[in-house]
Amino acid sequence: MTLPDPPSARSQTTAAPVVRARGLVKCFGALRAVDAVDFDIPAGRCFGFLGPNGAGKTTTLKMLMGLADFDAGELSVLGHALPAEARAIRARVGLVPQGDNLDPDFTVRENLFMYARFFGLSRSEVASRVDALLEFANLTHKAEARVDQLSGGMQRRLTIARALVNDPEVVILDEPTSGLDPQVRHVIWGRLAELRARGVTLVLTTHYMEEAERLCDELVVMDHGRILDQGSPGELIARHVEPDVIELRGAVSDGVFATLTSMALRVERHGTAVYVYTGAPGPILDFLGQPDGLTVIHRRAGLEDVFLHLTGRDLRE
Amino acid sequence: MKRSIWQLPRARMAAFSVFARNFLVWRKLIGPAIVLNFGEPVIYLLGLGIGLGALVGDIGGLPYLVFLASGIVASSAMISVSFEGMYSVYTRMVPQKTFDAIMATPLDIDDIILGETLWAAFKGLLSAVAILIVAALLGAVPGGWMALWALPVVFLLGLAFAGPAIVMTAIADNYDFFNYYFVLVVTPMFMLSGVFFPIETLPDWMQTAVLVLPLTHAIEVIRPLIVGEPVEHLLAHLAVLAGFAVVAYYLAVALVRRRLWN
Ligand SMILES: Nc1ncnc2c1ncn2[C@@H]1O[C@H](COP(=O)(O)OP(=O)(O)O)[C@@H](O)[C@H]1O
Ligand SMILES: [Mg+2]
Q: Where are the beta strands (DSSP E) in chain B?
């Protein structure tokens, strides 16, 4: 990797949080899109906002960048108070927005040079950095292509590269892998892990549990503008759900359901599936045996279970 | 916590990076741009100036081609600035989300709109230069080199028209909305501000009315400079143009903030 380490990695002496939010409120008319949230984002970590559509994740990130006002509370990023010092913050932060907004009038390479210029960085200052970023995004072979000739995954990688052009200490990513196929998603996860290893603070939103579990050191679960809980993925799982889940797909009779209820800590029926939460799966699996017409899946509890437990199973549009 | 959209904009050098972006894109498409810049005036000046001029004869002591060319220098800058400030700025602001991308850098809307305003005025200047060259080749620039003094005035005229165009962009829901501005603002000025005939031929009340139009003031300065006559009320005309430029820039910034801040 030829990218130089960002400033935060060079002098990682401060334990002060990179982002500090207290009582942060954002209203759209009568809707409290962000409703009195408190959080600290530690330096050099990957911090996630996990939540269903409309939870207020994008709105929170926009406030961090000084792109959206807030109605109440306090917010500071890298020691700069918002909204007064938004420009100073944006100079040291990179943003990967939810929808790509690359410049269609430029080639891949020109997009990076042009964006650098908005940070006051000249071509000669960033020439080697742009080459390194093209490499980082696996786009060297597409450097002279126009943006509309790129696949969705390539555009996403270019957007991430563009967010790094000012050598940011913090990179904010709004659903970095939504809508991408699994191969691209894994490549991007690898790149984000590299950034984090170099000491860049990552702040991301996602509704992919796997993404949150793999990348995030710490996350908050958000819904309806509120933070429901906060912690590492492991802590959240330990706190909210039993360690084992047995999922039954197919017709479960009332009798079996009643027996399971007596054996397990918690049993829930959702649609055509029954979820059995337990600390001792052995006896339950013995009881079930190899039932006809029923698929039995035994797995460790994961973030998805936490997420569904905290935010409910109602459909969100 | 809440920023006011009416907070005074600040002019910063950062605006030039927005100008540079547009310039670099324009340079890629320089061929069609030049065809448009030169093709249109050639057609206008030959068709109207020479064809109509043969019927009209002299106007205000000037051959019609000379009269018309000096008016078209100003009006074509107005039209070119208005197109840039509406269709092009809208494209960058709404479908292309270029402004959103730039707003994630240290630039503010103040800088973006200043850059766009300077760029639109620059495009107006380019079209005026093209017409001046065509007119000079047709022998319709009796003022000689003095006509070059018209160019800074054209740039000021461009600034005066960029703001209102961007104001329209800030409140537009789609491209069709701009038809109102063209029909209600640009075309009346094109017809009434002295491009095709002297405003003295208008009824008295209309002569007074057209004094509120910035194009009238621009032509009152640009025409004598191209023709080689002394300019009357120079400072008053420039002050009107500068007033439009400043007030419209401020309004444009405020309304774009209202649209893009949330
Ligand atoms: N500009 C806006 N105007 C009105 N309501 C908005 C605006 N932006 C977001 N909202 C509303 O605020 C809530 C939170 O939105 P958002 O932060 O985009 O959620 P998420 O990113 O978690 O999906 C949603 O109910 C959304 O409809
Ligand atoms: Mg979102």
A: 58-59, 62-63
Among chain A, residues having any CB pair with chain B shorter than 8 Å are: 28, 62, 65, 67-73, 83, 87-88, 90-91, 95, 97, 99, 101-106, 110, 114-115, 117-120, 166
Inter-axis angle of helices B15-28 and B109-137, nearest 10:
50
| pTM of the shown model | 0.92
Chain centroid to Cα B215, Å, comes to 9
- Among A12-21, A186-195, B98-107, top mean pLDDT goes to B98-107
Integer Cα distance of A199 and A14 in angstroms: 13
Residue A286, number of CB atoms within 10 A of its CB: 8
- State how far the Cα of A195 lies from the Cα of A3, in Å rounded to an integer: 10
**Going by CA atoms, what residue is nearest to atom 6 of ligand 1?**
A28
| pLDDT at residue A13 in the model | 46
Chain B (21-50) residues lying within 8 Å, Cβ to Cβ, of chain A: 21, 24-25, 28
Is 90 exceeded by the pLDDT of residue A264?
A: no
> What's the pLDDT score for residue B39?
86
CB distance B33 to B64 below 8 Å? no
**C-alpha to C-alpha distances, B142 to B69, B150, B246, nearest whole angstrom:** 11, 13, 33
Pocket test for ligand 1, best of A27, A34, A58, A63 (most atoms within 8 A of CB): A58
- How far apart are alpha carbons B126 and B30 in whole angstroms? 12
Q: Is the CB of A28 under 6 A from ligand 1?
A: yes
Can you spell out the DSSP letters for B127-171?
Answer: HHHHHHHHHHHTT--TTGGGGGGHHHHHHHHHHHHHHHHHHHHHH
CA-based radius of gyration for chain A: 22
For residue A119, which residues of chain B lie inside 8 Å, CB to CB?
105-106
Per-residue tokens: A51: 């939540």
**φ/ψ of residue A96, rounded to 5:** -110, 100
A255 Cβ contact partners less than 8 Å away, ≥ 6 residues apart: none
CB-ligand 1 contact for A59 (6 Å cutoff): yes
Q: Which residue is it, tokens 């200490």?
A: A169
Phi, psi angle pair for A168, to nearest 5°: -75, 155
Cβ neighbours of A158 (radius 10 Å)? 24
What pLDDT, on the 0 to 100 scale, is given for residue B154? 98
Record: contact A87-B261, CB cut-off 8 A: no
d(CA B64, CA B45): 10
Q: What separation in Å is there between the alpha carbon of A26 and the centre of ligand 2?
A: 14
Q: CA-to-CA distance for B78 and A179, rounded, in angstroms?
A: 44
- Residues of chain A with Cβ-Cβ distance to B14 below 8 Å are 118, 120
Instruction: Inform me whether the pLDDT recorded for B239 exceeds 60.
Output: yes
Q: What is the mean pLDDT of residues A96-116?
A: 96
Q: Whose CA is nearest to atom 4 of ligand 1?
A: A28
| Average pLDDT over every residue of A139-168 | 95
* Distance from C-alpha of A110 to C-alpha of A107, rounded to nearest angstrom: 5
